[in-house]
Amino acid sequence: MNLPRLLLLMSPLLLAGCAQLTGQGAATADEMQMLREELRKAEDEKLQLVYQLTELQRRCEDEKQKLLGQVAERQRLLREEQRKVEELEAKVAALEKKVEALRRIDRETLQRAIRR
Prior knowledge:
By secondary structure, the chain is mostly helical. About 90% of the residues lie in helices and about 0% in strands.
């Protein structure tokens, strides 16, 4: 609860206390009942706000856990895709070596055929 609201709620109590200290007389039964009612309302509002805060914190934590799960799944998928890319790169490199070997063989075969 913010300070101005707290002061507003507490000011009747403070005034009643000051009146008693300065000898101006005690608060009437109606004033005391009003003060008790305001205090009860303030306590009820506090409880409601605490409940709302708790609920918001719970939802925030739930959302955080959900997002962390999504991040973990995406990281797993990314690692899997990276592994596939590495496998394909290795296959491409092997095929390039085979192609180069076949070209070399073709050149040698062509040169032998020309010499004959």
